[in-house]
Structure formats: C-alpha cells, structure tokens
Amino acid sequence: MMPNDLPPWTAVQQQTQRWLRAGCFETMVEDLRLLLRLGAGRTDAPSATIVDSRTLQSTPESGARAGFDGHKKRKGSKVHAAVDTLGHLLALRVTPANEQDRAQVAALAQEIQAVTGQNVQVAFVDQGYTGEQPAADAAEQVVKHHQAKHGFVLLPRRWGVERSFAWVARFRRLARDYERLASTLAAYHWLAFATLMLQALFTKSP
Predict the structure, then answer these.
(1) I need a surface site. Which of 74, 132, 160, 193 has the fewest CB within 10 A?
(2) Is the dihedral of CA 114, 146, 103, 96 positive or negative?
C-alpha cells in the first residue's frame, strides 16, 4: 500500500527492521532527552520517573499474542512505560493485556537504572504497582531517597506519563496494536517519542 514514488515495500521493510534491531530509535530518544533536559535547566540524568501502562486494542495481525484486560474489558496488548518528569521516555515493555502491572516492576526498574546510570531515586506509580513483591523488586534497583518517601511512591504525579500516552496515541499506527511482533510495537513507540522530542527541540530553538 506504499505510494508509487517510494521504494518497494520489501526494501523499506528490510531497512526498517535493521534500524529496529540496531536500537536506532532508542539511541535517538536518549540523545534528544539529554538535550531537552539540559535546555530546560535540568540535570542530564533524571532522579525521578513516572510509571504506568496503557492497553491497545488488538487487530487480526496482533491477535495471536493478545490477552484480555479484565479491568478495561479489552483484548489486546499492554504497553508499560516509564518517563521522566518532563514526559520523555526512559523504558518501555510490551506484554499481553492480561499481564499484571506489578509483575513488570523488576524489569522496568532495571531498564530505568541502566539508561540513567543508576541515578533514579524515586518512581511515582498508581495502585496497579502496589504490593510487597513490587516493593521488593523496586528496592533492588531504585536508589533510596534521603527523604521519608522513596522507592515506589503512590502519588498523583502520574499525570506526566498519562500525558505522554496521549501524545503517542495521536499516531495512527499506535492507536491500536497493528504489529505481528511485540518488539515492533515497542520500537514504534520509541520512534514516536523521537518524533515528538525532535519537534519540541526545534520549537525551543531560537
């Protein structure tokens, strides 16, 4: 379905897969996040993160790996994301929609600390991430804050990640789960954030 003035779809698909496997979009987001944070007067590495998830309706392409989200009454995939307080993506995982949020804490915390150089001290979450096991998983990765509240903190600050989800939901490719592979869906989220961050960077430029 590609326009005739573009290369054959097979060539485009093969090159896209090369970029996805090489992690090009993740690297772009990391560099852009650094520039935007410094431009906003922040430190290069965030000390706080906000974690949440969104459920995407499945399609015939993604139905084989979809799960049923009983809370939202929807079959599809769940995207678990961690962003900094400016809304820039730090880590992301894609699971079937029936996977519990709290079960992703260990992997997300590990990814967050890997990209921030073990700098994150506190993570803001909602009720889906509460419990003894998530707290223990977070304690292994999240650096303890010197204040009373540290680790995974239940606070309404999570609007930051909800705003980020609203940004990427405006990309038609991410309105539903159209991808056969979960890795492709995750990579397109990185690409969407790179696009949004490039726009923000040039908007801020003189």
Answers:
(1) 132
(2) negative
Between CA 31 and CA 35 the distance in angstroms is 6
As beta bridge partners, residue 52 has 81
CA distances from 171 to 12, 97, 119, 137, 175 (A): 19, 20, 31, 33, 6
Instruction: Give the fold, CATH level 3, of 45-185.
Output: Nucleotidyltransferase; domain 5 (3.30.420)
Q: Token pair of 129, please?
A: 């991430």
Q: pTM score, two decimals? A: 0.84
Q: Which structure tokens are listed for 12?
A: 């485009």
